[in-house]
Protein 1
Amino acid sequence: MSQTFRAACVQMRTGTDICENLRSAETLIREAHGRGAAFIATPEVTVLFEAESDRLFAQVHTEEDDPSLRRLRALAQELGVWLLIGSMAIKVGERQCANRSFLIGPGGQVVASYDKIHMFDVDLPNGETYRESRNFRRGERAVVADLPWGKLGLSVCYDLRFPQLYRALAKAGASFLTIPAAFTHTTGMAHWHVLQRARAIETGCYVIAPAQGGHHANGRHTFGHSLVVAPWGEIIAEAGTEPCVITADIDPQRVADARGRVPSLLHDKPISVSIAPDVA
């Protein structure tokens, strides 16, 4: 774990037209490659941002048959890069998808995949309603994969709010965490930066968080502000709200340095909770 590498976050404004989304993703991925990135990550729902069930299920495919995944695998092979597709809707049943993240190697092979575990089901005060579990089946396992520079822990968006996932990934050897997202503008304004920094500090990992940003064709408003956070918690690259590429040079030695200064991963203790008697 001694080799420094350049990572890139591709920030997008994915809509409901798959062909246009793929063109946008490819343009930005090529830009990231041109800026020297060996590891490139795209946001959640890279290929299609569609919440309406009938329209979603009319356009999804199984992993084996998905033409968008084939195109992105070919692009990774052409460029010779590690490509993390933040997530795609992948058909896993007649009326059910997985929100699946793909790590594609420079040979174009799918090295690892992860299905989002935590489903975002909420009614927001501003009237926005999200029912991710209506269309998506939750994942059941965390995933760590090997990169040439160390191990990568995979997650997606709402997973960010569950620190136990990231602690498990770090204890399984992850030095880098990917948190691709389509965070709402409302929750992003309040929590995006502090949660990303907290996950880095708690684990001593780099956090690479490509995001969706802006007003989308489906009416959603996402926060943007793709981030790369160093293991000590400082933000070393940040986007605004427009589609763009940000890059940061990643030094794996900083993971060891941060964990040496605060070795909290070695200090976990079993916790039991006592409920005090009600004396009112």
Note: The longest helix spans residues 185-203.
Protein 2
Amino acid sequence: MLTLPGMATQILVVIAALMSSCTTSVSLGTENSSAPNIVLILVDDLGWADLGCYGADLHRTPNIDQFCRTGMKFTDAYAAAPVCTPTRASIMTGMYPARLHMTIWHEASANPPQNRPMIPPVVEGNLAHRYTTLAEMLHDAGYYTAHLGKWHLGTAGYYPELQGFDMNVGGTFWGCPPTFFYPYRGPFGNRKELRYVPRLEGGSEGEYLTDRLTDEAIRIIANAGEQPFFLNMCYYTVHTPIEGPPKLTEEYEARLSDDEFHHTNANYAAMVESLDQNVGRILSELKRLDIEDQTLVILTSDNGGFINKWHGSTVTNNNPLRSGKGSLYEGGVRVPLMIRWPGITRPGSISHEPVITCDFYPTIREVLGLAGDSQHNAHVDGASLVELLKDPTAELERDSLYWHYPHYYQTTEPVSSIRVGDWKLLEYHRDRRLELFNLANDLSEATDLSDRHADKAIQLQAQLAAWRDRVDAQMPIVNPGP
């Protein structure tokens, strides 16, 4: 039998444990105003080398560079796909695009080309409601959820308002605006398709889309009050049309006339600097409202930089990475990523661990201590980055990342890829051609090692094929016609 002092000691231990549990709930839970806000800044087509903190030579990005110094920078961060829609779906669900059967942008999902050596599969163009989105998880936990800018995850029945968001400003099934200048409507592309960006009325001539979306974001942040908020800040910039603010564009044209740079597009450089200014405005608003230390901020891109031409001028340069948007070479999928979790991430810390956009969903779930939907969680492919955010030298309990793009783009034909450690394999589906690279020694993927290390190539090919089977990846077929 316990003595009274012994019982008292045990009671104190229990009380201390309960207090510790309550403290954790107050700091991370979502039933109170102390839950951290979440700001996810997703830039469209921003290349890995487009920011000063990642080595850009022409572009001026002082605000993002400063943000990078206050949080954790990832050198080996990846988009889950080399194009927009699939990556955005991976962020919303934590799943690989191949598992979702969402491997290309919405407009191309149902009508694959029939005149190429391979016929890509018909894939999903809408993010199905059977998945629990990041916004739904946060909304159910008491968050005010707002989406701003590019959505591109389905038609009206699949818009943000029906995927867990309380507010949608500017999100449609279109992948880009017809223009970055007010009133943000008009013809786009060779087909002169009429487009518009909704819920941005009341502007004036010369108003710039990136500025206006930030205005709306600041209003939402300021009006959130005591309720924790999730801001899904999806800028349309720096996607085509390549239209920079005129004054900034003129400044870059002058700089380009005086010196040589890797980046050579003044309009694009102006778009990047405009992005930087507006990221700075959002960060300043968090500071002004004294909620900077209560807000987890993530900044990344949905795929690699667009290296093709727009109106005759090359858009960007992903040097030293090979290729760009659409490709499964590093230039198409490696992206900038910075995360600041106040009190957890060390200022100026750098992680070299390979991470991917599927990881955001389980990371945020663990940060907030949420159970989430068990059925959905069972199929989440991402890994929580919490331990990595605490310690940049930590390693995740996984050894491989996968990509599957059974489609065509200016930079590629249907292809799948796997990274295991420093080894990376690409498998092209038309002829099952393999390319093997060691990224530690060859970041530019200049030397194919598939012949020299044939055993490694075959091993990785088998692992890649097994993964495709597990996620029921849709495959292209040989075209019998051409």
Note: DSSP finds 13 helices and 20 strands in the chain.
Protein 3
Amino acid sequence: MMFTKTKIALGVAATLFAFNASANEHEVHHHHHHHHNAAHAEHAVHEEHAEHAVHGHGHAGHVETVETHTSSFSHSNSSNAKVDALEAQLQAMQSEIRGLKAAANHHAVDPDTAKVQELDQWMNTVKHEDHHGKSKDNMVFFRGGYGRNNESRGGTVDPTNASGTGGLLNGAIGDQDAWYVGAGFDFNINDNLFGMMNNTEVLGELMFDYKQLGERKANGITPAISAILDNGTPGVNTQSATVNALTLAASPKIKFFKGSNFRPWLIPAGMEITVISPPSDAITVLNPGMMFGAGADYKIWKDIYAGADVRYHHSFDTVDGVNSDGLTAGGYLGLGF
């Protein structure tokens, strides 16, 4: 608006200047023409007087001629004064125009600058909404529940074969039921299944859990074994063996309905390593395998989630007679970050 007023002021000033210049030029021309006509008429009169003066008034004719030149010089000075006044007026108008231009440039807003300011404001708004109104994509979770192996644990807690007993003292580990606790992390990788499905996250899960099947009788060289052997060997172990396993897994996880409070998910296949204890009869403990899973969680408050899952654990082979295949099912508590 300020720039428009400035344009109008400049146009009015230019018009006034052109009008004044034209009027002054016309006035100067008119005065000059009038002066020229008057001088011409006066000169004719003086010539007429001069003709009479030739015959007896020669000195007076000379005086008349001098007076005529003096009057012409006076009109010339008057015209110069008007030109000077017009020039001064022009300079004042030019100064005022420069001031108006400077004011217009000072108050004008660069369109590019305005766009940058608008973009910055929009970005700040988006960041504010993202920080306060959206769920966080990563999660740490703590889990626990029930587990069951497909077969008996296998292996023995005391593989000693005493002569005359016809077999193993403690027998094979037959536990199948277990409980477990564990924890893990979900890391966001992609928000639209690599362009194939909107609002579908791809996550990387790192997880570990501890699974305990039960306790068995004392193992190793026990007092009972010493009595059976009857060779004076003392029983040195009176501790029971805890039958357990540690699972480490890394899996891709597909999580649906991004932006919703309810988020179902599945693990198509993941890598898993199981560490068994006690060791197998061949004293080995590591068994690689795969994990498949499905579950869902619900945002109960801010970035706190409650969820449940079911997972199937499959090993590529037995660990020298020990089978660790089976299911785990339970719940978890997640914290978004």
Note: Residues 2-53 form the longest helix (52 residues).
